């Protein structure tokens, strides 16, 4: 895949970039290692000052970088601005909290004495250059949620971004440079996916984080396992959105629309499978389908657009194949389901009902504005349907019954359970999944410690 900016709203190639050659890649790896040797000794206060500076610059650049993201991958411009603002918020959160999150821990005095020590501390030390293999769907946020904690921990970052968002990738390197971070603290590697394996095998790279597809995750995890390097993986998701009879049906249906089509439906944590109790199925389905059908699809630069184009032509083909497979197998198309005429990689908001286990869309992630509706006879069946997926990223539950809440929290196989609201990430809360959605956590204290050397310091009398 060429490294290029291609506008998904019309298919026009705007700019193409040459991949780095071996000499330039070697120079950057050496720079990362050399920078880490000195940056790791910097004080938290200095790192925080630099990261606050980056957040201030991002605020000033907000409109420009939002337009760049929309141009490169098609998200509605208002969502692009919100993404940039969220990144600045996360930078400030880590700048303000990293010192306390990584403060030395003192074990219980009785345990210290029992060990024969006069003092024991647990210290969090930076691990080294970390390779980040990042996707195009949230081209700024996915990177910042890695970079902010990594830089505050004293690590340095090497970004291999998706090949269709090169301008956003280069902006990120420039942003940290303008903020005053030492050269080599954060570098963008303009390389193809075929070069990732060699970079990960390099001894100067100590760990890796990847957000992306299952095949990409398997490849990185396999190499990292062979090289005995730490990884964090955030892969696909097919999140359930469960609606029980006690729910506020009007609000649940309204939020369900947003939860499905956020980022043009191209979000791992977007709700995709809507599992509704039989007692309220008809009422919810009527409202949900009407809401999906009413969305405005069009130019992502238009402030009134709700759903823009898919990011790539192949992405649209993949989505169409899932819908057609379901249709051939008996699914009912309640709205959408037909590719519109004209330029660009648009696909309409679509709702499918009558889903069964033999359909591909039941097992695979639909990465676009396509929702599937399921009817559940009771809570037990709702849990069974929700867990009948290879993925386990997050989940949504709508109920006012606390006993049902406790049951869902206990039994849903997911990294998050959002009750009476849609899944969203926040820098203070851990984010990640189970099963084929990956392992490890990003954000919060859990995320910043993923790439730290957790060191026991034992001192005798």
UniProtKB/TrEMBL annotation:
Transmembrane segments: none annotated. Keywords: NADP, Oxidoreductase. GO terms for molecular function: aldehyde dehydrogenase [NAD(P)+] activity; succinate-semialdehyde dehydrogenase (NAD+) activity. Residues 3-457 form the Aldehyde dehydrogenase domain. InterPro entries: Ald_DH/histidinol_DH, Ald_DH_C, Ald_DH_CS_CYS, Ald_DH_N, Aldehyde_DH_dom, ALDH_GabD1-like, GABD/Sad-like. Belongs to the aldehyde dehydrogenase family. This is NADP-dependent succinic semialdehyde dehydrogenase.
């Amino acid at each position: 895949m060429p490294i290029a900016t291609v506008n998904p709203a019309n298919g026009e190639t705007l700019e193409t970039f040459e991949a780095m050659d071996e000499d330039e890649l070697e120079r950057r790896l050496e720079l990362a290692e050399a920078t880490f040797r000195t940056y790791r000794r910097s004080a938290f206060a200095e790192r925080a000052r630099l990261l606050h500076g980056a957040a201030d610059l991002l605020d000033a650049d907000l409109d420009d970088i939002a337009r760049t993201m929309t141009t490169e991958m098609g998200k509605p411009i208002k969502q692009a601005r919100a993404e940039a603002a969220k990144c600045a918020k996360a930078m400030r959160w880590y700048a303000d909290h990293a010192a306390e999150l990584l403060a030395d821990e003192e074990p219980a005095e009785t345990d210290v004495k029992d060990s024969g020590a006069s003092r024991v501390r647990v210290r969090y030390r930076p691990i080294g250059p970390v390779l980040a293999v990042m996707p195009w769907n949230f081209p700024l946020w996915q990177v910042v949620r890695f970079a902010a904690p990594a830089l505050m921990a004293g690590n340095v970052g090497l970004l291999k971004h998706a090949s269709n968002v090169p301008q956003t990738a280069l902006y990120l390197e420039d942003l940290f440079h303008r903020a005053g971070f030492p050269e080599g603290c954060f570098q963008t590697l303009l390389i193809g996916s075929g070069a990732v394996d060699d970079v990960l095998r390099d001894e100067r790279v100590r760990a890796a984080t990847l957000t992306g597809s299952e095949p990409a995750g398997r490849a990185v995890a396999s190499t990292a396992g062979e090289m005995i390097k730490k990884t964090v993986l955030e892969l696909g998701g097919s999140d359930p959105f469960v609606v029980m009879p006690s729910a506020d049906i009007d609000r649940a249906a309204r939020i369900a629309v947003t939860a499905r089509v956020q980022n043009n439906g191209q979000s791992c944590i977007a709700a995709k499978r809507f599992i509704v109790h039989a007692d309220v199925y008809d009422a919810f389905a009527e409202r949900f389908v009407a809401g999906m059908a009413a969305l405005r699809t069009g130019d992502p630069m238009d402030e009134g657009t709700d759903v823009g184009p898919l990011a790539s032509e192949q992405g649209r083909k993949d989505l169409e194949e899932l819908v057609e497979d379901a249709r051939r197998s008996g699914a009912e198309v309640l709205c959408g389901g037909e590719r519109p005429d004209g330029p660009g990689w648009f696909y309409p908001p679509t709702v499918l009902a009558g889903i069964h286990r033999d359909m591909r869309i039941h097992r695979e992630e639909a990465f676009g504005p396509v929702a599937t509706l399921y009817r559940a006879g009771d809570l037990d069946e709702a849990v069974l349907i929700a867990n009948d997926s290879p993925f386990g990223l997050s989940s949504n539950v709508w109920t006012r019954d606390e006993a049902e809440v406790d049951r869902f929290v206990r039994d849903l196989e997911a990294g998050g359970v959002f009750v009476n609201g849609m899944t969203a990430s926040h820098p203070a809360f851990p984010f990640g999944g189970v099963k084929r959605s990956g392992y490890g956590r990003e954000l919060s204290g859990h995320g910043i410690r993923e790439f730290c050397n957790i060191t026991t310091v034992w001192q005798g009398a």
